[in-house]
Amino acid sequence: MKKRCAIFANCQRQLIETFLQSSDEFVEEYCFERIPYTYEAVYQNLEVSEEVLARTDLFIYQPLGEKYGELSTDRLVTKLRPNCITISFPYLYFKGYYPQDIDNPLAKPEAGYPFGRFPYGDRNIINFVEAGKSRAEIIERLTQPDFYDQAFLLNLVEETLQELTRREKETDIKIATLIRQRYQHELLFYTVNHPSNTIGREVVNQMLQILKLPLLKKPPEFRLFSLEGLTAMSFAVRVANRMRRMIDLKPVPNPYREVFGDNQIPLYPSVIQQLNLTGVPINHRYRQGQQKLTFAEYVAAYLTQYD
């Protein structure tokens, strides 16, 4: 029988599971136990089955503090079998790209959008609307290349990385160094807490190293390594898989499909320019469900909440 793996984490569990499943050696050795996401357990008052914990061989988790009572990971760990392997990883986030991030008071669940169409709020839009600014003026102001000050943004990047480094002192997995090294050269987060595949692959490789299993290889290098280039490659693989299904062939894995790439928060032009983000073009179109929007188009769509 295969060993059992349980992951107690937020929505980032989806990213971790996807990359663990791309390891043939891991899949050969482990299967997944289903337990609630951390936010489901906390907000819906769900329990993590003691029976499941007692038969788990590998427990991967994001720390939850003692204020969560029986859901705190310190207590959950005591319910594991003595020889169960535990691997902790931090809450993955990066505020450097999204200085505007705030709760959206207008976000309401609706069909197909459990957290609303715009779950991530924009403090600047909210302030401008409350100040009575027009739609055209808001878009004009926010698209200015100097809207955000460089010193402010660099300080926000540093604060985020220092806080992440502090949290990593209590976890097995470390990611702050990679973010510091790479955040200017490629887009590492699609929202403040939805990491790219680069982050997912690094986190899972550190886990595989702990498990003494072979590391994942990067997908084949693509010379036009850019957001547009990767999107094109992902589309090409999807088309090829569609054709394979038509002739009853098994689809091949798509190494270019971003796990969290379907709902992206556009970066402010001033963030791109002031942080010298060479991996993100100013005029990039960001995926929002079935459509792709520029930053200005996204702001206009966001403003429809107030109509």
Distance between the termini: 57 Å
Uncertain segments are: 221-226
The H-and-E topology, N to C, reads as: EHHEHHEHEEEHHHHEEHHHEEH
Principal-axes shape call: globular
Main β-sheet, spatial strand arrangement: 2-1-3-4
Oligomer: single chain
What can be said about the biggest beta sheet?
A: 4 strands, parallel
Helical content (DSSP H or I, runs of 4+): 25-40%
The helix-and-strand class reads alpha/beta
Instruction: Return Rg in Å.
Output: 21 Å
Number of helices: 13
Count the beta strands. Answer: 10
Strand content: 5-15%
Overall residue-averaged pLDDT value: 90
Domain Polysaccharide biosynthesis enzyme WcbI: 5-214
Pfam families: WcbI (PF18588)
Keywords: Coiled coil
Protein name: Polysaccharide biosynthesis enzyme WcbI domain-containing protein
Model description:
The protein is built from 13 helices and 10 strands. The protein has helices at 13-21, 24-29, 38-43, 50-54, 73-77, 123-130, 135-142, 150-168, 176-182, 197-210, 227-246, 269-274, 295-303; strands at 3-8, 30-33, 58-61, 85-88, 101-103, 120-122, 189-191, 194-195, 286-288, 291-293. α5 links the parallel β3 (58-61) and β4. The protein has a 4-stranded parallel β-sheet. The chain is globular. The chain is α/β, with parallel strands linked by helices and 307 residues long. 40% of the residues lie in helices and 11% in strands. The model is unreliable at 221-226 (pLDDT under 50). The chain starts with a strand and ends with a helix. α7 (135-142) runs antiparallel to α13. Among the domains are: 1-88, 3-Layer(aba) Sandwich (Rossmann fold), CATH 3.40.50.12080; 101-148 and 258-304, no CATH class.
